[in-house]
Design a protein that fits this description.
The structure holds two protein chains of two kinds.
Chain A lengths: L1 E5 L9 H13 L2 E8 L3 H8 L6 E6 L8 H12 L4 E5 L2 H13 L4 E5 L1 E4 L2 E6 L4 E7 L4 E5 L15 E4 L9 E8 L12 E5 L9 H11 L2 E4 L1 H5 L20 E5 L5 H7 L4 E6 L12 E4 L2 H11 L1
Chain B lengths: L1 E6 L1 E3 L21 E3 L1 H15 L5 E8 L4 H10 L3 E6 L6 H15 L3 E5 L10 H9 L2 E12 L2 E8 L2 E8 L2 E5 L11 H7 L4 E4 L1 H4 L7 E7 L8 E3 L2 H10 L5
Parallel strand pairs in B: 1-4, 1-6, 4-5, 5-11, 6-10, 7-10
Antiparallel strand pairs in B: 2-3, 7-8, 8-9
Classes of the chains: A alpha/beta, B alpha/beta.
Chain lengths: 309, 249
């Protein structure tokens, strides 16, 4: 077996999600090849070569892949992927954008967001907002898979010494172009990789009140997340949304503040090791998954917690 | 221009489904069904584009059993002009759905296809991207803003790092994210009018598409249960527990 992994990167470095995806590939077993498709992405390719367990890095360095547009990268993945038994990518917005397109070009199904590898063709994945876990088996010659990164412990970013090989293919579908990006700047840890996450919901009442959570998060070295309700209400931007269709997190400690706990939110955080809920409604469903529940007005409890730390 | 909108019949988002005790499937007996919320956003976007004069005709397509007509009627009540049901009792998976939608696109020649980014039952998030691949169209996935200008469309996408804006040449596939719009409710007069709007029914065989599943579900099971937690009396007790019992801070 041979596995092609589409690396998550920003041309300069490899994103952590790639390390979890390599872990999933190791669970499948076989030769692991990482594809770095980008522009001026030599540094990312060098970093990929050092990842534990990677036997080869393919680097496609071309203007057509500069912003990793799905129309172009999927053509490359479909071309290179023909020679592999598995093609993997993290279930990030980037992997979700590109991989199904590549799967369709190869005329194979995709298995989305696997949480375990049962065998080379059989995997577990959550459906219905994680209320059901399905064990699925693929009959396709090439298995195209996105990986739920929180379900696989990252491999080491160091220790490997894979060969780096340039790929000349330049696919430019010519149907799309990059205009701009608005990247949320934060000194706090990445939401999906943080060991502690503090999240706020509708109960925060407005965006300004999130300052309380930022202060708390900075004391804990935590990332700040939000429920869909808080994002829809415009309190905070979309990249902070935790849930079924937002980001999936599984930190050591998740503190849900003013979040009622709709099933769609629980889908994004219930695999956290320890869950704390602070909510003034003692019947809020969030308390059913919380290890420690505090029924209190968050506007009293959060400042108190902040000063106690 | 003509827009095609795909709609899927799914379990209502408020329902917490459970696996059947024998693990062969999900218990959907007497469960409330509805239009997938992301598909509702797709219809709303098409209707708004029509109200702006950008779109001239909206065709709502659903794939599935005969009862999926209900969801097409909902789409018609919300403002779609006509419906197409591709009727099949086979469990159609995303690749097959994309192939069926491509066959419909070949007939209808839409300039834009709007779909939900994912259905809340299978949580696959694949169909739009696969349709774009099969038709060679550009794709604007996870859209939070769609602006049509001449023969191109500018799409703002919700991505992990924030937002990304791409410019796509038409025809294009758009998949909707939550913040694209807030869908309206169908008015009673519009629900009545929708009953008279045309709906074509076709089959995968008539469209020449093979829909045999490539992925087999071997079993389904409930997720691991979390053990019951405790309520703490105050912040001091919470901090004490987190430090000494859970040892996470």
């Amino acid at each position: 077996m041979s596995i092609l992994i589409l690396a998550e990167h920003d041309n300069a470095s490899i994103k952590g999600a790639t390390l979890n995806t390599v872990a999933a590939a190791k669970a499948i077993g076989g030769d692991i090849v990482v594809l770095v498709a980008g522009e001026a992405c030599g540094a990312a390719a060098e970093a990929a070569a050092k990842i534990e367990g990677v036997s080869k890095v393919l680097v496609a360095d071309n203007a057509a892949y500069g912003h990793q547009l799905a129309e172009n990268v999927s053509l490359l993945v479909a071309e290179l992927g023909k020679d592999f038994s598995h093609i993997l990518a993290p279930a990030s917005t980037s992997g979700k954008n590109t991989l199904p397109r590549a799967a369709a070009l190869l005329d194979v199904a995709q298995i989305s967001e696997i949480i375990s590898v049962e065998s080379a063709d059989t995997f577990k994945r959550p459906i219905y907002a994680g209320n059901v876990i399905a064990t699925v088996q693929s009959s396709d010659a090439i298995k195209v898979i996105t990986v739920r990164t929180t379900a696989f412990d990252a491999v080491s970013a160091e220790g490997g010494s894979a060969a780096v090989e340039a790929v000349a293919s330049a696919h430019d579908a010519g149907t799309s172009s990059y205009v701009r990006e608005e990247v949320a700047k934060s000194d706090r840890p990445d939401l999906t990789a943080a060991s502690i996450v503090v999240s706020g919901g509708r109960g925060m009442q407005n965006g300004d009140n999130f300052a309380m959570l930022y202060s708390l998060a900075d004391k804990l070295g935590a990332a700040v997340g939000a429920s869909r309700a808080a994002v829809d209400a415009g309190f905070v931007p979309n990249d902070m949304q935790v849930g079924q269709t937002g980001k999936i997190v599984a930190p050591d400690l998740y503190i849900a503040i003013g979040i009622s706990g709709a099933i769609q939110h629980l889908a994004g955080m219930k695999d956290s090791k320890v869950i704390v809920a602070i909510n003034k409604d003692e019947d809020a469903p969030i308390f059913q998954v919380a290890d420690y529940g505090l029924v209190a007005d968050l506007f009293n409890a959060v400042p108190e917690l902040d000063s106690a730390l | 221009m003509k827009v095609l909108v795909a709609v899927k019949r799914v379990v209502d988002y408020n329902v917490k489904v459970r696996p059947k005790s024998d693990g062969t499937g999900v218990d959907l007996n007497n469960v409330k069904m509805a239009i997938n919320p992301f598909c509702e956003i797709a219809i709303e976007e098409a209707v708004r584009l029509k109200e702006k004069g950008v779109v001239t005709e909206i065709v709502a397509v659903s794939i599935g059993a005969k009862v999926s007509q209900e969801q097409i009627r909902t789409a018609l009540a919300l403002g779609a002009d006509r419906g197409i049901l591709v009727e099949t009792d086979v469990e159609v998976q995303p690749l097959a759905i994309a192939k069926l939608l491509k066959a419909v696109c070949d007939k209808e020649q839409p300039q834009m296809v709007i779909l939900g980014k994912q259905a809340i039952d299978g949580d696959n998030n694949q169909t739009g991207q696969m349709l774009a691949a099969l038709t060679g169209m550009s794709q604007g996935t996870f859209a939070s803003e769609v602006v049509v200008e001449g023969d191109s469309v500018t799409v703002t996408r919700e991505v992990d790092s924030g937002s990304q804006v791409v410019k796509l040449s038409l025809p294009a596939v758009i998949t909707t994210d939550l913040r694209l719009n807030e869908p309206r409710y169908a008015s009673l007069p519009n629900i009545m009018k929708a009953k008279k709007k045309p709906m074509d029914v076709m089959t995968p065989e008539e469209l020449g598409v093979e829909v045999t599943p490539r992925v087999t579900t071997l079993k389904v099971e409930p997720p691991a249960e979390r053990k019951a937690g405790i309520k703490v009396a105050d912040v001091a007790e919470l901090v004490e527990k987190l430090k000494n019992e859970a040892k996470v801070i």
